[in-house]
Structure formats: C-alpha cells, structure tokens
Write a structure and sequence with these properties.
By secondary structure, this protein is α/β, with parallel strands linked by helices. Helices cover 40% and strands 25% of the residues. It is built from 7 helices and 8 strands. Helix 4 runs parallel beside helix 5 and helix 5 (134-147) packs across helix 7.
Length: 185
C-alpha cells in the first residue's frame, strides 16, 4: 500500500515538469494537500511522507525548522529516484512554493550548488551555516539567474535573517549594493 501512495505522489510531482503559471501553482497546492503527509511528532508545522533514512534528512530538517521560525508550514517532499524533484513545499498565508535546498557548509560551495539545481526547481533555498563572502554570494546568485531563465527566486536563511532574492532585483544595476545591505545588516 505504501508503494502505491509513493508512486501516486511521484506521478503528481512529475506533472510539475509540464505545467506553468496558475496550473503549476494549483498542482503544488494539490501535492501539499495529499493524505500521505503527516506532521512530525516534534513539530506540527513540518509535514513529511517519510524519508527519515535519507542522507540529506538532517539538513532538510534543520532548514525546515528555520522556515517554521519564519512563519512557514513546511512539506518535506519524497525523493523518488525516477525524477528530479524539489526538497520542500513552503506555505505561508495560503501561498505554496516549491524549493530545492542548498545548505552551505564551505567557503566556496554556492555557485556549483546553484547550477546543480537547474531543471529541478525554479526556487532555491540557501541555508547558510557559515560566514560567506557577500560579493561572491551575490555573483553566484546573479550567474544562476543569468544561466537559468526559469529561475524565479533564491531565498536565503542566514541566522535570524530571511533574504528573498527575486529575478526582478538581480537584473537591476544596483543589485550588489541592495544585496549587500540586506545580507550584511
């Protein structure tokens, strides 16, 4: 029975690769409403379908807890081997968005991590666990948006800060100064 449920959610996730706009958004919400999701015993705002044995589970859980601190309800997505899928659905005030998680542990890991997620999700969540050069991070984000024309947002969690970076900001000439102000304040 659990195998069929997993296959059902996998097929629902696969549909996302063919949808855009409002249809995509409705599909994301439909996935979040699936019966397979159940809240963690330790936090009712983090819902999962299993996957606790995943190598990435601890990182996912740390970022999910941080998202809850920022007022989100978090749906941890399964990681089917047949298709590339995001890691989370974050919901806030009835708006559902999918994010691929990139946890930054090293001083030079952002650029490659962002590029690896192309084709997986249009929104990236960067969970910063180390101090990182602001200009280098901004350059990596700008490059990611330049290479990936479908990218819409890079959301950064750094300590107690939540920094959303939308495409409309990255294309502005003053992006670096705006980013520096938000990231270093």
């Amino acid at each position: 029975m659990a195998i069929n449920a997993s296959n059902d959610i996998t097929s629902e996730l696969e549909k996302l690769h063919k949808l855009t706009g409002a249809e995509f958004s409705r599909q994301v919400e439909r996935i979040a409403m699936r019966k397979e999701f159940h809240p963690l015993a330790t936090d009712s705002n983090i819902l999962t379908t299993g996957g606790e044995q995943s190598d990435d589970y601890d990182n996912l859980l740390l970022a999910a807890r941080k998202a809850v601190e920022f007022g989100y309800r978090v749906y941890l997505l399964p990681n089917p081997t047949e298709t590339r899928t995001p890691d989370f659905i974050l919901e806030k005030k009835g708006v559902y968005r999918m994010y691929d998680l990139k946890t930054v542990f090293g001083k030079s890991s952002v650029g490659g991590s962002l590029l690896d997620s192309i084709g997986q999700c249009n929104c990236i969540l960067i969970h910063m666990t180390v101090e990182y050069n602001t200009r280098k991070l901004a350059q990596s984000i700008r490059r990611y948006f330049e290479i990936n024309d479908k990218a819409t947002e890079v959301l950064i969690f750094k300590g107690r800060k939540r920094i959303p970076v939308k495409r409309s900001i990255v294309v502005k000439p003053e992006f670096f100064s705006l980013f520096k102000k938000a990231y270093e304040r």
